[in-house]
Amino acid sequence: MNVIIVPNAEEMGKQAAQLIAAEMKKTSPFVLGLATGSTPLTLYKELIRLNKAGEIDFSKVSSFNLDEYVGLPGTHDQSYRYFMNQNLFDHVNIDKARTHVPDGMAKDPTAHCAAYEQMMREAGGVDYQVLGIGSNGHIGFNEPGSSLASRTRVVKLKESTIKDNSRFFAKIEDVPTQAITMGIGTILDSKHAVLVANGANKAEIVAAAIEGSVTAWVPASALQFHLAITWVITQDAATKLKGKY
Ligand code: GLP
After folding, report:
1. Mean pLDDT across the stretch 201-213?
2. Predicted structure pTM score
3. Which residues of 112-150 are buried (b: 16+ CB within 10 A; e: fewer)?
4. CA 135 to ligand 1 center in whole angstroms
């Protein structure tokens, strides 16, 4: 596990984008695993800048997002499909037909999850997975207690997640209570991964995930089993780490 501590969110985005860009230049076609939340925004801004500057090319890139709310269509401004279009896909030369976000409106969600896994396998697996971390340690929407071997499936959101994410909705009752998420096992299959974290409110959970025991109660601690993961963390999110990095 590689840990990089940076002064601020801009630097976090730049460093994470450089890691991904280096692999993108070596591998074609390339499969990106993508995350939502506010933390990866500086990373996506930097990927857009590198694409516009001609340093990276998305024409042979396909993507798979980690998760989506159940019950929100891709046109809803809080859906993760909408977020990805707004914050990345609409600004780079990616073929939207090759961008995949779980379908929160799928008629048969179980079959949809199995098909999503199959599509990832057929694409050759994820080359680089982007991750954020929830304040309760979730990755994607794998809430505490998720099996460390879990695959893409429908999950119930914890109260703490509904509360955290209610800031994006008019009222807390509008936050969906279920989501489709890649599993922890799915995430561990990625060839490379980068987890970005910033803000003092993430300091405890970042330390628990990096330096604590591996436990389903801190889903991100499973990343200790990932062979090629880099944590890019801002100073304020790194204050509880005991090791020297
Ligand atoms: C959501 C997403 C996660 C994300 C988390 C943290 O719940 N499903 O993938 O990591 O929020 O979000 P933020 O980066 O806004 O703190």
Report:
1. 98
2. 0.97
3. bbeebbeebeebeebbbbbbbbbebbbbbbbbbebebeb
4. 8
**How many whole angstroms separate alpha carbon 201 and alpha carbon 134?**
10
pLDDT score, position 5: 98
Exposed/middle/buried for residue 64 (C-beta within 10 Å: 0-12, 13-18, 19+): buried
| Residue 129: per-residue pLDDT | 99
Distance 164 CA to ligand 1 centre (A): 9
Q: What is the mean pLDDT of residues 169-194?
A: 97
Which residue minimizes the CA distance to atom 13 of ligand 1? 37
pLDDT score for 85: 98
pLDDT of residue 22: 98
Q: How far apart are CA 82 and CA 224, in angstroms?
A: 31
Q: Domain for residue 168, yes or no? A: yes
CATH of the domain at 70: 3.40.50.1360
**What pLDDT does 95 receive?**
98
In a domain, 6, yes or no: yes
Report the residue among 133, 218, 231 best suited for mutation to probe ligand 1: largest number of ligand atoms under 8 A from its CB. Answer: 133
Catalytic residue among 100, 103, 138, 142: 138
Mutating to test ligand 1, I would choose from 67, 164, 178 the residue with most ligand atoms within 8 A of its C-beta, which is: 164
Mean pLDDT value across residues 71-84? 97
Counted domains in the chain: 1
Q: Which domain holds residue 142?
A: 2-197+207-238
Of 46, 51, 65, 67, the catalytic one is 67
Q: Give domain status of residue 243, yes or no.
A: no
Q: Band of the pLDDT at 143, cuts 50, 70, 90?
A: very high
- Examine the residue annotation and report whether 204 is marked as an active-site residue of this protein: no
Residue 173 within any structural domain of the chain: yes
Q: What is the pLDDT of residue 100?
A: 98
